[in-house]
């Protein structure tokens, strides 16, 4: 996104330079604008590819979560145990309490 802003700023600078300079360096300015337009097109294409990639990853993550829920239900669990999703390890007391609660639910 930052590169896109920079390219747009350069394009604006080139347009101002051309309008002030008149015919001075007209060919160079035209080449510069064409090069910048090509870079802008490339940046736009890359952004679109990245957007598609993010959407695909979101679909994968969502479907895996759905599959985990289905597997948990098939195994007789009413839901996925949130403790399994925690990144911090449980203390022994917390683990005992979690197991006791789970056993009571079944």
How large, in whole angstroms, is the Cα Rg?
28 Å
> Mean pLDDT across all residues, rounded?
77
Tally of helical segments: 4
> How does the overall form come out from the CA principal axes?
rod-shaped
Strand portion? under 5%
End-to-end distance: 51 Å
What is the assembly state of the chains in this entry?
single chain
> Could you give the count of β-strands?
0
The secondary-structure class comes to mainly alpha
Order of helices and strands: HHHH
Low-confidence spans: pLDDT under 50, at least 5 residues? none
Describe this protein's structure.
The protein contains four helices and no strands. Helices cover 82% and strands 0% of the residues. Helix 1 packs antiparallel against helix 2. The protein has 106 residues and is mainly alpha-helical. The radius of gyration is 28 Å and the shape is rod-shaped.
What distinguishing features does this structure have?
106 residues, mainly alpha, 4 helices
TL;DR?
The chain is mostly helical and 106 residues long. Helices cover 82% and strands 0% of the residues. Helix 1 packs antiparallel against helix 2 (26-74).
Secondary-structure topology with pairs:
Elements: H1 2-21, H2 26-74, H3 82-85, H4 92-105
Helix pairs in contact: 1-2
